[in-house]
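Protocol step 4 of 6: structure prediction from sequence.
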Amino acid sequence: MGRLTPAVRVKRRLSIALLLMSAAWCGANAIAQPDNSQAEDFVKVHAKVITTRLRAYGRIEPVVNVPVRAIAPGTLSGLRVAQGTAVKAGDVIAHIGGSQMRALLVSREQALYQAQAQAQTAGRVLEIARRQLSLHLATRQAVDSAQASAATARAAVKTADAQLKEAQQSQDVRAPVAGAVTDVAAANGEQVSAGQNLVTIEPADGLRIRAAYYGADADLIRVGMRGGFAPSSGGDPIPVEVVAVAPGVAVDAGRYVGLISTRHTLPPQWMSGRWGTVTLDGPTSREVMVPTVALVLDQGHWWVLVHTATGNKPRRVTPGSSEGWQTAITSGLSPGQQIVVRGAFLEFHRGIANSYQPPD
């Protein structure tokens, strides 16, 4: 066998390359449309209502943490919670005692006794005034004044009694809501003052999702939009609703959105600190849908072949979102037009191999 000339070798290599390219693109079309043997050469495109999906990454977090404060001064004891402890509303989590608490209780008791004594005295004065009025020994004005004094004294008794009960109840530090302890700011034996923060609780039923949307999606978000939250840990999406939208963008150019779950019974995945993907149902639009395999990318632009009576004509289009095997076309096509589906890529590039000139 004689040796091949350089020109023959170039032609042979070019032929092999073109065969490989054809096989690769045929395989790609077969993958994009498994049942290619039954696919039509042309399809008539139709318009379809498309719902814009707005996606962002979000985190479940409490709407507000609840601080548990000391109502009265004293010595802290019996603190029985730590970070992460689950509590129920009304659970006793600590006690306040010591000399300051005892002094407060004694002071409130004395105030109640004094108020009760004054109320009894005012009641007797009122009885005397009424008796004297019946004997024409007192005026109606004197009786009215005695009645006002008696009413004031009774109100003082109620106030003093409520203050004593408040002091007695302040000896027990209770959880105001159900949730989990996120911070413990005091220790047993510590002298605490009235209003001092002792424990912080993250409410179990006060959680929401905080997500950030960027770019054009951020301008489409509205309160009342609904969608789903897919936890990164897995499980079914949790239905959610937008309840708050930041009026402007943050320093990172994102617009923050607050969402709550619309389920009456929350799933186990609804826990503070969980991350996931928020997908909202955005605005709808009517767009032309084409089989994705009919799209051809050439020189950075997308094209389809429109089938006409005079042949197949390339048409530049702008693709939008995809659903399954179809892609929305936002511009370039009208409903009712026919486009090439089978072998669209090869048809679009037909003639390139024939016009190829090998280098010298």
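Step 5 (inspection) to follow. The domain at 66-203 is CATH 2.40.50.100 (OB fold (Dihydrolipoamide Acetyltransferase, E2P)).
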